[in-house]
């Protein structure tokens, strides 16, 4: 026991706040500097992308299930929260152990740098944003922590050596506030600049695609089912589902784009964007479907695609005997394994440049992607595609196959009820159910509906555009008031009846009948 009173400890929150503000400055400064480098040079983007790559498949599926296409926003926000908490803890540590805190900050900066270097297409120069951000963050942390100490001296000795507490307090608040503003402005500026000041965006806006040598047949009348509330037959580009591993959308200037075709072929070659546009392009209607789509889900979309048949590219390359797969790789390191036979038969597998009469939207693969009738996107629809390697399933495997998904992914026969939505209330006397069914490359022959465990009854099919597109259906039903359950199943043109057997999305797509509960009043 000493006779002296315990020194009055400094209050804690200013130290926690110092840590959080310094971290915000780190990411803000790095973000604005990263405009000068590749998109993955932003530590925020790099860490998020690395996180997506190491996330176990079940967690990713869970995130897609629960958050749908908001999954990336949720990821960014959660990362931000975790980063602020860690930073606040470091600030608290700096209160007593500034050297230890500084060393830990340095270690974190090294980890951020490692995340940047782990991204496809980044080099040592791409470390600069992280280095600049870390330097700014450290300076801010040390400065703020010093001010926080003055604000409430740790070892109050009785004689006031420093400034009066009110003055010190005001200085700290002003410094922390200004740092926060600088952090926010550089973060917002960095995001805005990288979005706008970009050749890809400008070029896409100015691009006029050539017409198709072979145009898609006009849609027959009546492709949309007569049921209020149905989704449109053609999915507008802005509403088309988006699934990919890219946290920041790759921005590829078409003038630098090249596709390399190589591997087990007689003739390797590369193709430029201009060369591609000079070819005889074709149009096709095609419904894309994601393997992660749960029964009744909406990870499917239908569009008119413009592109060059991959079959023709492969004919020029001349695959060697023994080859049975084409591994397509994107500019950001995603890959898909597509059976060679699927790309050489007569289906419209395209190296696509256009979607619904426009150049591909950036997030749907600008300037060039693949679309392949009959296969889930993860084994066929490579966006931002830059490389086709003719190879063998025995020798190479693709991104999702390495993460537990099947190496082949033919789309399963599926149907869903779009209206009513679950637990919706319909008016009594003449309810209309409606939905969508698909069996790409084969076609839908029948859709049947069962209400409340009654007989399976035929639904009315809307007109068929092509066997590669989804087909809408409707079902008029004289509903008694009360709670009801409707179930749907489809039969394709091969006579296959959609199975009732429930399968999870992993490893090769969900199956089972979609059912909806609703009420009639
Ligand atoms: N480069 C790249 N291409 C990709 C993916 C990806 O993660 N990266 N995801 C694939 C998957 S799983 C699907 S379902 C489709 C989705 O295409 P969309 O986003 O245009 O709807 O893209 C495929 N192409
Ligand atoms: Mo997918």
Concise structural overview:
It contains 11 helices and 19 strands.
What is the element layout, followed by pairings?
Layout: H1 13-34, H2 43-54, H3 57-67, H4 71-96, H5 98-117, H6 128-151, H7 165-196, H8 199-206, E1 258-263, E2 269-272, H9 273-277, E3 282-289, E4 300-309, H10 310-317, E5 325-330, E6 335-339, H11 340-344, E7 350-355, E8 358-359, E9 369-371, E10 385-391, E11 414-419, E12 425-426, E13 431-438, E14 444-451, E15 456-458, E16 460-461, E17 471-477, E18 482-492, E19 514-520
Parallel strand pairs: 1-10, 12-19
Antiparallel strand pairs: 1-2, 3-4, 4-7, 5-6, 5-10, 7-8, 7-9, 11-13, 13-17, 14-15, 14-18, 16-17, 18-19
Helix pairs in contact: 1-4, 1-6, 1-7, 2-5, 4-5, 5-6, 6-7
The structure holds ligand MTE and molybdenum atom.
Molybdenum atom is lined by residues 243, 290-292, 376-378.
Protein name: Molybdopterin-dependent oxidoreductase
Transmembrane segments: 72-94, 101-121, 127-145, 172-193
Organism: Citricoccus nitrophenolicus
Short descriptors:
binds molybdenum atom; binds the ligand Nc1nc2c(c(=O)[nH]1)N[C@H]1C(S)=C(S)[C@@H](COP(=O)(O)O)O[C@H]1N2; Sulfite Oxidase, Chain A, domain 2; alpha+beta; 33% helix; disordered N terminus; single chain; Immunoglobulin-like
* Helicity, as a percent range: 25-40%
Question: Which spans have pLDDT < 50 for at least 5 consecutive residues?
Answer: 1-7, 154-160
- The sequence of SSEs as H and E is HHHHHHHHEEHEEHEEHEEEEEEEEEEEEE
Q: Give the helix tally.
A: 11
Query: Into which percentage range does the β-strand content fall?
Result: 15-25%
- Derived from helix and strand composition plus strand pairing, the structural class reads alpha+beta
User: Whole-number radius of gyration?
Assistant: 29 Å
Largest sheet: 5 strands, mixed
The outline comes out as: globular
| Count of domain modules | 3
Bound molecules: the ligand Nc1nc2c(c(=O)[nH]1)N[C@H]1C(S)=C(S)[C@@H](COP(=O)(O)O)O[C@H]1N2, molybdenum atom
- State the strand order across the main sheet: 2-1-10-5-6
Integer average pLDDT: 91
Number of strands: 19
Cα end-to-end separation: 79 Å
């Amino acid at each position: 026991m000493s006779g002296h009173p315990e020194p009055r400890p400094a209050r804690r929150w200013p130290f926690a706040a110092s840590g959080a503000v310094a971290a915000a400055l780190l990411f803000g400064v790095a973000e604005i500097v990263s405009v000068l480098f590749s998109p993955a040079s932003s530590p925020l983007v790099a860490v998020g992308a690395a996180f997506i790559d190491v996330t176990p498949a079940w967690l990713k599926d869970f995130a897609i299930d629960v958050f749908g296409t908001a999954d990336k926003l949720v990821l960014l926000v959660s990362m931000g929260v975790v980063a602020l908490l860690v930073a606040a803890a470091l600030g608290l540590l700096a209160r007593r152990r500034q050297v230890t805190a500084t060393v830990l900050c340095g270690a974190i900066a090294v980890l951020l740098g490692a995340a940047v270097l782990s991204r496809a297409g980044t080099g040592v120069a791409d470390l600069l944003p992280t280095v600049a951000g870390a330097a700014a963050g450290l300076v801010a942390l040390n400065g703020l922590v010093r001010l926080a100490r003055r604000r409430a001296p740790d070892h109050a000795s009785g004689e006031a050596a420093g400034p009066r507490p009110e003055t010190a307090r005001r200085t700290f608040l002003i410094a922390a506030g200004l740092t926060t503003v600088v952090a926010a402005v550089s973060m917002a500026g960095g995001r805005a600049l990288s979005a706008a000041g970009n050749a890809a965006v400008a070029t896409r806006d100015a691009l006029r695609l050539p017409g198709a040598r072979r145009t898609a047949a006009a849609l027959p009348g009546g492709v949309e089912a007569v049921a209020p509330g149905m989704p449109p037959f053609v999915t507008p580009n802005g509403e088309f589902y988006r699934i990919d591993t890219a946290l920041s959308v790759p921005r590829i200037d078409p003038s630098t784009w090249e596709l390399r075709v190589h591997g087990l072929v007689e003739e390797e070659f590369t193709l430029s964007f201009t060369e591609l546009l000079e070819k005889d392009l074709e149009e096709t209607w095609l419904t894309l479907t994601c393997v992660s789509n749960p029964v009744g889900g909406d990870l499917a979309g239908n569009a008119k695609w413009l592109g060059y048949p991959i079959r023709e590219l492969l004919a020029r390359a001349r695959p060697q005997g023994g080859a049975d797969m084409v591994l397509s790789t994107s500019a950001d390191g995603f890959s898909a394994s597509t059976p060679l036979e699927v790309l050489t038969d007569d289906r419209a597998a395209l190296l696509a440049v256009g979607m619904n009469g426009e150049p591909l939207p950036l997030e749907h693969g600008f300037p060039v992607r693949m679309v392949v009738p009959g296969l889930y996107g993860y084994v066929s629809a490579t966006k931002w595609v830059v490389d086709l390697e003719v190879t063998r399933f025995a020798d190479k495997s693709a991104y999702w196959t390495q993460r537990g998904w099947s190496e082949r992914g033919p789309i399963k026969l599926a149907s869903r009820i779009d209206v009513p939505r679950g637990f919706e209330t319909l008016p009594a006397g003449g309810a209309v159910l409606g939905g969508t069914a698909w069996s790409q490359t084969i076609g839908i022959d029948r859709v049947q509906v069962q209400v409340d465990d009654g007989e399976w009854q035929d639904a009315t099919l809307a007109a068929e555009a092509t066997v590669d597109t989804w087909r809408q259906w409707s079902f008029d039903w004289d509903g008694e008031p009360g709670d009801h359950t409707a179930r749907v199943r489809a039969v394709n043109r091969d006579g296959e009846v959609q199975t009732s057997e429930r399968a999870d999305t992993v490893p090769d797509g969900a199956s089972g009948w979609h059912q909806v509960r609703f009420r009639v009043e």
